[in-house]
């Protein structure tokens, strides 16, 4: 259910209270979009710097959240957070303008601990490592993603050797809804 309403707690015994609270905090933003800014790791020509950044908590069920991350006129990225039997899973769905899947898509990882109600960490999984290696992205095989939500800010962070990239979104001022992300209806 969208529209800022909290969702009922699913009956996943393995999901921690902290993970459920984290999931519900993001669910409460359903249907809204927020502007962001790079606060670490940005560089000219990186594809992100100098462009409007917008996250849109677009699709919400009691098991899954789909959050498109718009970078200027690039609508190719959607973060997917799924409740699993063992915790939370983050995947990055990358699409081309025609809606077809990018060759590097659905990468991410599962939580390995309970995290907190405000922060969850997703170390890269084996499937993603294999995909990165197959496509020559060996720098990404140690990726770790963090998502943090506080009263006024949502943060997306990617860390790995020689990289610390962070975008913070202002939750106090919703913005106009962006276009439908590529590959979605």
Quick tags:
185 residues, mainly beta, Lipocalin, 11-stranded antiparallel β-sheet, 2 helices, 11% helix, 41% strand, disordered N terminus
Which CATH first-tier class would you pick? Mainly Beta
Q: Structurally, how many domains make up the residues?
A: 1
Largest sheet: 11 strands, antiparallel
Helix content: 10-25%
Distance between the termini: 17 Å
Question: Helix count?
Answer: 2
User: Approximately what portion of the residues adopt beta-strand conformation?
Assistant: 35-45%
CATH fold title: Lipocalin
Instruction: Sum up the overall morphology in one term.
Output: globular
Q: Which structural class should the secondary elements be placed in? A: mainly beta
Would you report the number of β strands? 11
How big is the Rg?
16 Å
- Average pLDDT value? 92
Q: Could you spell the SSE succession in H and E letters?
A: HEEEEEEEEHEEE
| Low-confidence parts | 1-13
**CATH architecture annotation name:** Beta Barrel
Summarize the topology.
Elements: H1 17-27, E1 33-40, E2 53-56, E3 59-60, E4 64-71, E5 74-83, E6 88-94, E7 107-110, E8 119-123, H2 126-134, E9 144-149, E10 153-160, E11 163-175
Antiparallel strand pairs: 1-2, 1-11, 2-4, 3-4, 4-5, 5-6, 6-7, 8-9, 9-10, 10-11
Protein name: Secreted protein
Describe this structure in words.
The model is unreliable at 1-13 (pLDDT under 50). Strands 1, 2, 3, 4, 5, 6, 7, 8, 9, 10 and 11 form an 11-stranded antiparallel β-sheet that branches. The protein has 2 helices and 11 strands; from the N terminus they run H-E-E-E-E-E-E-E-E-H-E-E-E. The protein has a single domain (17-175), classed as Lipocalin (Beta Barrel), CATH 2.40.128. The longest helix has 11 residues, at 17-27. By secondary structure, it is mostly beta strands. The chain is globular, with a radius of gyration of 16 Å. This is Secreted protein.
């Amino acid at each position: 259910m969208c529209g800022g309403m909290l969702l009922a707690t699913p009956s996943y015994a393995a999901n921690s209270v902290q993970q459920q609270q984290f999931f519900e905090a993001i669910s409460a933003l359903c249907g809204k979009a927020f502007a962001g800014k790079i606060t670490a790791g940005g560089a000219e020509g990186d594809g992100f710097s100098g462009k409007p950044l917008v996250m849109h908590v677009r699709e919400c069920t009691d098991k899954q959240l789909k959050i498109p991350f718009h970078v200027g006129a690039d609508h190719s990225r959607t973060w997917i957070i799924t409740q699993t039997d063992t915790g939370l899973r983050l995947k990055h769905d990358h699409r081309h303008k025609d809606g077809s899947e990018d060759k590097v898509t659905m990468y991410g990882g599962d939580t390995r601990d309970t995290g907190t109600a405000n922060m969850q960490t997703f170390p890269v999984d084996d499937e993603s490592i294999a995909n990165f290696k197959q496509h020559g992205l060996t720098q990404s095989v140690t990726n770790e993603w963090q998502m943090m939500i506080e009263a006024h800010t949502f943060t997306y962070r990617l860390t790995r050797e020689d990289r610390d990239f962070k975008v913070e979104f202002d939750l106090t001022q919703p913005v106009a809804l962006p276009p439908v992300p590529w590959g979605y209806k």
